[in-house]
Every structure is written in structure tokens, then in C-alpha cells.
Amino acid sequence: MIKPRNSRLLTAITLVSALALTATACGDDGSGTAGAQGAEGSGTGKIVFWDENGGVRTAIWKEIIADFEKANPDIDVEYVGIASTEAQAKYNTAIQGGGLPDVGGVGAAMLAGITAQEALDPLDDRIAGSSLKGMLNEAMTENVRNAAGRDELYTVPISATNGVLYYRTDQFEKAGLDEPDTWDEFYAAAEKLTDKPKNQFGYTIRGGPGSIAQALDAMYGQSGIESFWDASGKKTTVNDPKNVAALEKYAGLYRKVTPEADLNNDFTKMVAQFDAGGIAMLNHNLGSYQDHVNALGTDKFRGIPQPKLADGRRVMVSNPVSGLGLMKSSGNKAAAWKFIEFAASHASNSKFGESAGLIPANKEAAEDPWLDKAETTKLGAEALFSGDTKIVQLPYYLPDWNTLSKADSEAGFQKVLLGKGTAKEFLDTLAAALDEAQAEWLDQRG
After folding, report:
1. Cystine design at 44: which of 74, 278, 344, 384 (Cβ 3.0–4.6 Å)?
2. How far apart are CA 24 and CA 132, in angstroms?
3. CA atoms lying within 13 Å on the CB side of residue 11
4. CB burial class (10 A; 0-12, 13-18, 19+) of residue 252?
């Protein structure tokens, strides 16, 4: 159920106040708190780097740090790995109580909250005066600028994932089907490749955690609507009649060409079923690419960008872009910026992208030979870099976005799948909450 705006705001204020009181009670001196101006420093000495996806990316970041320290022997980087599920809370606590790093990994979904607490330095001028000028992917840059909810850029984009349609090439070949390049071909293939008595399904639809982002991608991809807000910037297009029709058609796949268990499935179960051969097509992102390779090799599946419209256009919703932020409270911003610039450089960003299987933000890195061996990543990079794909920027800048697009909406989407609610009712409810959150955000901006 979507909460009233005042309830959400009160909860946020209460949480921040509690954190602040806790920090005071503990006797923290306030160093490294949000709003502190810090200093440029000498450009040498020690800096602290927080990796917001610790464990998963620890090895590659330590390799990049070693390369940096070799090139900059007068700078020492202390690596701190943080589990992605704990990153937001750790930042919030440090912002109120002190102890922020010099450089922090900040995903787009966290960016608005951290920026609103004045914890990050704007980076446009630094980028303009550095080797990164003109070298960062425009779509990723737009993504993180939009996510901050301000005109300035507050993180240097490092990598991105995007929506991928994985399909079992072995099953398509056996059925005499071509690659599902368009939405019409996708729907036709899903039906033809379904054989319920044999427990074989043409598609798996995400009905459990994370379902809304995938549903939005399918909606906008089919409707062709290219903006999340109308021309006024005050009303969302999420419940536009074209999106309503698209969601009706997409939700209609459930139980017709998908397993009934999809109602509660998350991506881990969906990936396992796809790799086991019970599913012919799966929507996920680049994050599961290596899982498929490990299970199937490279000759039984393919991952392609989301299908096109009949007129040849491809529309996709934005995926959160990972980036590096310079903390305003840092006492050694010169050294911290050197590290950010190094990490986003051609060589380092290419090394990171290859290790993580993600699309690198550096334009030169996105042209490196390793992408030819990681076809799905290469196709995703081409979709983002070519300019032929229209990216609908989701409003990560809204403080309520995470709850509205997850906990507050997932149960409603399940009702649509079960036929207990209509796509229009669901999207009208979501739209009303989004319009209210947007109005509040616009009021706060003045």
C-alpha cells in the first residue's frame, strides 16, 4: 500500500534526527560530516575509498588501487568494502555522525539522498579541466546527473548495466525461430516455445522482488513513450493509455506462457530455470551474464538488447549507473580527485568493465577488444553509445522512488498478474503517488 506523503516525510525526518542524536550522544567531533567543506590538501598522503559493492568487486578495485599507487607513490589508498545492501545505511550514518571517506562509490539509486544531505562536491569543473573531458558516455552522464536531481554532476560514471533479453539459441533453432528482434517476434516466440504438459515455457515473468523495474522496461519499450514525465514535468506518463495497453499485454503472459511460480520468483530462481532449460526467454541485466556462461557456455544462449518497436525504434528505461563521488568533507580533495580520474581512465575503466562484465563509461574503454569476447556486454554498449536507443530516465532523484517502485507497488503488480486488479487501476495508483512525490520535490527546489 502506498503511504501518504506526510507519513513518508515524517519517517525520513525522524530517522535523520535519530541518527544525529546518536552521533551527539557518542561524543563524535563531527569530522567528515555532510556540509563540511574539507580542503584541497597537498595532493599526497592517505585517502579512504568506500566500495559500495564490496566482496563482489573487491578484487578488481584492489588491482586498480595497486596500479594507482604504483603511478602515484606519494598517495596511499585505504580500501573499505561495503556490502551493497548496507551501503545506503552506512553513508547515512557517516553523514550525520562523521567518518565519511574521501572517495565513495555511489550508485544512481542512492545519489539523490546523499546529494540532498550536501555530502558530495559537484564535479563539472574538475571533469572539464581533466583528461576525462569528452571521454565519458553521454547517456551514463545524463543518468547520474538526472539521478542527483540537480543541474550539477555529482559522480563520475564508471559502469552501467542495461536490460537484456536472454534467449536459448538451442531452443529457437530447434523450433525454426529467428532471433526475437521485435516485440511482435518476442510474443510469437513465447507462445510457440511453450509446452505446458512438458513443463516447458517460452518466458519467465518477474513477479517477485524487483518486478516493477522490469515491468516498466517492457511498458515503455512497447509503448514507445520516450519520457517519464509529460511536457510540464509535473505529470508522469506511467499511466498513459499506451503504457496501460502495454502492461495489459505483458501481464497477460503470466500462466499462459510462464510458470505459475513466477508470481513470487526473483531473478535468482528465474536464472536457474533458464539455465536448466525450462525457460526459453528471460529478461534480466548484464549481472547474470557470467552465470549463463558458466552454466551453458556460449553456444546455447544469447543476450540481446530489449526488442524494438515495429518502426525500428528501441526504447528502454534507465538502469542505475555506478559512479565515484568526491566527498565534500575530504581534507585531501586533490589526491582524491587524482584517484577518481585514474579509475575512470581508459585503462582502468576497461579493466573494471572486463572483470565485472559491465559496460564501461569511458568511451575508449568501450571500444576495447575484450568486448568482442563478451558479446552481450558489447551489444549493450553499442545500444548505449550509438545514440539509436532512447533511454527513459527513471526518477531516481525522488526520495520516495525506491519505496514507490518496490515495496509499495510489487503487491499491486501481483494483483494484475492474478487478474485481481487491472493494469489501469495499478498504474493510476502508482501515477498519483509519483505525481505527488514530484510536486513535493519541485516545491523543495523552489
Report:
1. 74
2. 40
3. 9
4. middle
CA distances from 416 to 89, 206, 244, 281, 442 (A): 33, 13, 11, 21, 31
Max CA-CA distance within the chain? 70
Please state the φ and ψ torsions of residue 238, each to the nearest 5 degrees: -60, -30
Helix (H), strand (E) at residue 166: strand 163-167
CA dist 201 and 192 (Å) reads 9
CA distances from 417 to 95, 163, 252, 366 (A): 41, 21, 7, 39
Q: Which three cell numbers stand for residue 210?
A: 524487483
pLDDT tens, position by position, 77-106: 999 999 988 998 999 999 999 999 999 999
Q: Are 303 and 282 in contact (CB under 8 A)?
A: no
d(CA 334, CA 208): 45
Each residue of 385-424: pLDDT tens digit?
Answer: 777 789 898 999 998 888 899 888 999 999 999 999 999 9
**Crossing angle of the two packed helices 407-418 and 423-445, in degrees rounded to 10:** 160
Single-letter code of the amino acid located at 139: A
SS3 289: helix
E strands in 252-382: 281-285, 302-305, 314-317, 322-326, 359-360
Residues 6+ apart with CB under 8 A from 165: 180, 186, 281, 282, 283, 303, 304, 305, 306, 307
pLDDT tens digits for range 322-376: 999 999 999 999 999 999 999 999 999 999 999 888 899 999 999 999 988 888 8
Kind plus residue range of the DSSP H or E element containing 163: strand 163-167
